Recover the amino acids of this structure.
């Protein structure tokens, strides 16, 4: 019986998978990154295989529409079928469904209540909580609307949402009119310049923190979730009792939150 060469394009099952399909996915993955069409040598390097082998897969992909060759440069890029597959997958994505498992895992990892908020008609709106035994300190429930300037959730939306959307809410809060999610005593005392500096800080760290700004007994950390177009589609927030939870931007809870938010963003198609 002839021994198969590593270079043979065979459908050999290994560990429950198909070797040739696994190899093909490496070639496709090399084309996923945005940018100009890639030359064969670059595709082969990214797929970690010899150029002749990568070329055989690319020829098949071009025939089937998964890839196409740029006539001007001779480089390769994703083809129309790959685009259709991607759009079909995106139509079925919603941050609430995609992030559900990550929320529970993050709660178990850090030991504090975790919430997911989306932008609603009234502003930052919590749509899901994964609670711990200290949930009695959490005054909010799904449907709770948060202020932009004094909540960590709102600050992330304020930093990353288009200003044309957030401006009406921000203007009211800067004028001292509390957001529906805030108590009258939590109206922000900041200038527009201070607000811009705050949002710049949030963008720099991809995270916001509060220490009792909305609820004196509650501290929180929030991180953004992005979609395939780089738009913010949700905010994940970890919250816990003041004096107990560590909300340092470089602390272990912050690192766990960043990792989970990045994980959900990647599942939403973000690069």
């Amino acid at each position: 019986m002839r021994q198969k060469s590593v270079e043979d394009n065979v459908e050999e099952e290994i560990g429950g998978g198909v070797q040739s399909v696994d190899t093909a996915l490496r070639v496709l993955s090399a084309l996923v990154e945005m940018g100009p069409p890639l030359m064969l040598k670059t595709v082969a390097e990214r797929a970690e295989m010899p150029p002749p082998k990568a070329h055989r897969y690319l020829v098949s992909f071009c025939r089937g529409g998964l890839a196409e060759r740029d006539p001007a440069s001779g480089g390769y890029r994703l083809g129309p079928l790959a685009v259709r597959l991607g759009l079909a997958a995106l139509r079925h994505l919603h941050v609430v469904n995609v992030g559900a498992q990550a929320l529970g895992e993050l709660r178990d990892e850090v030991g504090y209540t975790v919430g997911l908020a989306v932008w609603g008609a009234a502003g930052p709106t919590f749509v899901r909580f994964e609670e711990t035994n200290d949930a009695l300190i959490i005054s909010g429930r799904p449907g709770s609307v948060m202020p932009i300037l004094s909540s960590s959730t709102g600050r992330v939306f304020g930093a990353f949402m288009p200003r044309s959307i957030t401006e009406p809410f921000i203007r009211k809060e800067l004028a001292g009119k509390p957001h529906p999610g805030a108590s009258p005593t939590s109206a922000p005392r900041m200038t527009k310049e201070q607000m811009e500096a705050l949002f710049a800080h949030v963008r720099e760290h991809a995270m916001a923190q509060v220490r009792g700004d909305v609820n004196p007994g509650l501290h929180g950390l929030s991180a953004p979730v992005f979609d395939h177009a780089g738009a913010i589609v949700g905010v994940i927030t970890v919250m816990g009792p003041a004096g107990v939870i560590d909300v340092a931007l470089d602390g272990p809870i912050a690192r766990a939150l960043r990792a989970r938010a990045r994980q959900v963003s990647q599942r939403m198609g973000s690069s």
